[in-house]
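agent: user wants the structure for Leucine-rich repeat-containing protein 57 from Crocuta crocuta. delegating to structure tool.
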Amino acid sequence: MGNSALRAHVETAQKTGVFQLKDRGLTEFPSELQKLTSNLRTIDLSNNKIESLPPMIIGKFTLLKSLSLNNNKLTVLPDELCNLKKLEMLSLNNNHLREVPSTFGQLSALKTLSLSGNQLRALPPQLCSLRHLDVVDLSKNQIRSIPDIVGELQVIELNLNQNQISQISVKISCCPRLKVLRLEENCLELSMLPQSILSDSQICLLAVEGNLFEIKKLRELEGYDK
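agent: tool returned. relaying tokens verbatim.
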């Protein structure tokens, strides 16, 4: 992509607060965006070949509310990403991430987080300190179990479809706001589904098709009608 084309995008973004550059084969985060750290509210660099985010730049977008880097080649996220105190939407689907930074809990304004199609092996405990988080998509990862800490999650919707989950902590029933729980295409036996999900939780949509039991068996469980 030519410098003049990139310059035109930067000039437009300076006026609109939105920088969008998708499907351009970019291999790195555009350094030209340094000039816009106090302008941008939205950055979308999806469908490129970006392998890393520059620590010295990424944490300086003080007004940024939405960051999309779907379909890139990211393997790690810098701690500086967590300086984005106004960030409400972070979308990192289809990268090569194995974990999120330990400082991830500092993204205090985050409402929507998409990490589908990565290489996460566990539910990131850092998510439990994000009080405004509404929707989390962790589908298509390699998560095997849901630990006790899940009870502290504040989310309304949790998508764990297409993982390798065979165990779920009973604490999932304690999630104060959880209404939608998606567990399709995992490795769950019916006996591993906590009864309290049906009887004692706020969950009103439970999607469990494609596990190691027939759905009609679930319907026979006590509390299903509730």
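agent: one observation worth passing along. The chain has four helices and eleven strands.
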